[in-house]
């Protein structure tokens, strides 16, 4: 459970993050655009690839 101050801070943070997302995704057509969905899918694919640490011998 959040305190009154916690609710206030969280509410402000949601507004700020929402505005940032709008700015970042505007070139792709916005949050609900097909290009944004495709971009998100590509990011999920890239981030799902397991990375091996480099071999220090190489």
What does this structure look like?
By secondary structure, the chain is mainly α. 62% of the residues lie in helices and 0% in strands. The chain contains 2 helices and no strands. It has helices spanning 4-25, 34-47. The N and C termini lie far apart (51 Å). The model has no long low-confidence stretch (mean pLDDT 96).
Primary descriptors:
single chain; 58 residues; mainly alpha; 2 helices; flat
Q: Could you provide a short overview of the structure?
A:
The chain has 58 residues and is mainly alpha-helical.
Mean pLDDT: 96
Terminal CA distance: 51 Å
- Output the number of helix runs: 2
The H-and-E topology, N to C, reads as: HH
Gyration radius (Cα, Å) is 18 Å
The biggest beta sheet, please? none
Share in helix: 55-70%
Percent range for β-strand residues:
under 5%
Number of strands: 0
Poorly predicted runs are none
Given the helix and strand composition, which structural class is it? mainly alpha
- Principal-axis shape equals flat
Please outline the helices and strands:
Layout: H1 4-25, H2 34-47
């Amino acid at each position: 459970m959040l305190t009154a101050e916690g609710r206030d801070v969280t509410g402000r943070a949601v507004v700020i993050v929402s505005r940032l997302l709008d700015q970042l995704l505007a070139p792709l057509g916005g949050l609900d655009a097909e290009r944004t969905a495709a971009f998100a899918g590509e990011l999920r694919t890239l981030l799902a690839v397991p990375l091996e640490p480099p071999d220090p011998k190489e």
